[in-house]
Write a structure and sequence with these properties.
This protein has 232 residues and is mainly alpha-helical. The protein has one domain. One of its GO terms (cellular component) is plasma membrane. Keywords: Cell inner membrane, Cell membrane, Cytochrome c-type biogenesis, Membrane, Transmembrane, Transmembrane helix, Transport. Pfam families: CcmB. It comes from Marinobacter confluentis.
């Protein structure tokens, strides 16, 4: 009985995740906007501040991390918006499967469509800011661990601001302070790698952030969805 219920929950998660991916692929502008924003921020930063290698090399990790954070933030408003507008979200809440599992599936789909492409683009853009091979590898690893945390935490803010006017501004004000620890450890790990220091401890701590977000964020986002829909 327990195995049957677990199989049903996993099937529901898979169905929700695939549906979100297919729906997003039909609206490519929602996928391209964060990627183009990521590329433009990294390209414009040297032009607006300094193109000197002595400046860009130590700051490169921070530049790419800030650009990735803002790109993920840019896409969060669409995480639940389309399902809210067409009534699908209310139907998901009526399903026998726990809502937090469906929220987790939507967060994973969001990361696959937004966070993972940023990680793939990172090596090319890292070369533009003169990062070296070891630093590029560590940067990609920190983003691979950190961007799912951004999507999971962002799901809480997206759920709380669902249906509100000027939700994008409010979402940014709510979520950016929660992103700061991930940003600090992400950039700090890249800087430590550039100096030749050991980074295993910092990567383990980022892994702990990811485990904590996977454990708590879906429950918090599910509760926030119930609050938003009951108020709506």
């Amino acid at each position: 009985m327990r195995r049957s219920a677990m199989g049903s929950d996993l099937s529901a998660m898979k169905a929700v995740m695939l549906r979100d991916i297919k729906t997003s692929l039909r609206q490519p502008q929602d996928l391209l906007n964060p990627l183009l924003f990521f590329i433009l921020v990294v390209m414009l930063f040297p032009l607006g501040v300094s193109p000197e290698v002595e400046f860009l090399q130590p700051a490169g990790g921070g530049i790419l991390w800030v650009a990735a954070l803002l790109s993920v933030l840019l896409s969060l408003d669409h995480l639940f918006r389309h399902d809210f507008d067409d009534g699908t979200l209310e139907q998901l809440m009526l399903q026998p499967q726990p809502l937090f599992l469906l929220v987790l599936a939507k967060s994973i789909a969001h990361w696959l469509l937004t966070g993972l492409p940023l990680v793939v683009l990172t090596p090319l853009l890292a070369v533009m800011v003169h990062l070296e091979g070891n630093s590029i590898g560590v940067l990609c690893l920190t983003l691979l661990i950190g961007t799912p945390v951004l999507s999971l935490i962002g799901a809480i803010g997206a759920a709380l601001t669902l249906g509100l006017r000027s939700a994008g501004v409010l979402l940014s004000l709510m979520i950016i302070p929660l992103y700061i620890p991930v940003l600090i450890f992400g950039t700090g790990t890249v800087m430590a790698a550039a100096e030749g220091a050991a980074v295993a401890g910092q990567l383990a701590l980022m892994g702990a952030f990811l485990a904590l977000a996977l454990t708590l964020a879906p429950f918090a986002a599910a509760a926030a969805l119930r609050i938003s829909l009951s108020n709506g």
